[in-house]
Specification:
Elements: H1 5-38, E1 43-47, E2 50-61, E3 65-73, E4 77-81, E5 94-102, E6 109-118, E7 125-130, E8 136-141, E9 159-168, E10 177-187, E11 189-195, E12 205-207, E13 210-215, E14 224-227, H2 231-234, E15 237-239, E16 242-248, E17 252-256
Parallel strand pairs: 11-17
Antiparallel strand pairs: 1-4, 2-6, 3-5, 5-10, 6-9, 7-10, 8-9, 11-12, 13-16, 14-17, 15-16
């Protein structure tokens, strides 16, 4: 089929326009990736995963009274290095829990049931709860602090109730009413790989920023080495067959020789 010169004149500019737009988009994506990798990082964006979906006063001891309990999730998109998370601030998976209560006596305690749900694919755990004054302390029940939040699953679809009990570390009868904004610090996990070590019973991961302590006394290893991005800064010790790796902020490899 013959194509007239007039038709070609009309078609060719349109084809060129499509090619230019496609090349511009491709170059833009390449340039962004290149600038990121040039800085030593390959990044991925993930939505925060854990959210508080409910909070309620469960019980009280020795006259404790709950005045209110509310929560506010700080939903953000976190940019995370695939090599390692340099600090917990890079993962803004934290949620504000606001509670007000009276603890009139030295042995007074108040317990709140908090429902945690996971709406993403990232497995997270609770590193700590910040915002308590020096004279108060807390305990968590129905969950081991710094472990993964799991029900039938550990990511999308997970929902779990935990109990947070607040009481006195030191009692001051002049200060018995409290209004607290508590920050729940949710963090990702780093993988642990073992080389020339039987890893039956040894933990395969650790929460970001956590301290790893392993006891090899039942199966002594004379020489243990630990490798990982975080070791450059935090180091580790191996004494009396006890391995201690503080502030683990990357995947690590533990080898025996």
């Amino acid at each position: 089929m013959k194509v007239s010169k007039n038709s070609l004149v009309k078609i060719i500019p349109m084809i060129l326009l499509v090619l230019v737009v496609g090349l511009s988009v491709g170059y833009s994506a390449y340039r962004n990736e290149l600038s990121i990798q040039g800085a030593g990082f390959s990044v991925r964006k993930i939505a925060r995963s854990l959210e508080i979906t409910n909070v309620a006063a469960k019980n009280s001891i020795d006259g404790a009274i709950s005045n209110y309990e509310t929560y506010k999730a700080k939903s953000k998109i976190a940019t995370i290095s695939t090599k390692s998370i340099k600090s917990s601030s890079e993962v803004p998976n934290d949620t504000l829990l606001s509670v007000g209560f009276n603890l009139p006596n030295e042995d007074s305690k108040i317990t709140y049931t908090v429902t945690i749900a996971n709406y993403g694919s990232v497995e997270l755990g609770l590193f700590d709860i910040a915002g308590f004054p020096d004279n108060l302390e807390y305990t968590v029940s129905n969950y081991d602090l710094q472990s993964k939040f799991c029900s039938s699953t550990c990511n999308l679809g997970m929902s779990k109730d935990i109990d947070i009990t607040i009481g006195y570390k030191s009692y001051d009868e002049s200060k018995t009413t409290y209004n607290l904004n508590l920050n729940l610090d949710f963090r990702e996990f780093n993988n642990i790989t073992y080389v020339n070590i039987e890893n039956d019973g040894l933990q395969p991961y650790i929460i970001n920023g956590g301290t790893l302590v392993l006891d090899f006394s039942s199966n002594p290893k004379e020489n243990i080495t630990v490798e990982g991005d975080c070791i450059v800064n935090s180091g580790y010790t191996y004494e009396n067959y006890i391995l201690t790796v503080p502030n683990v902020t990357s995947d690590i490899v533990i080898s025996a020789s």
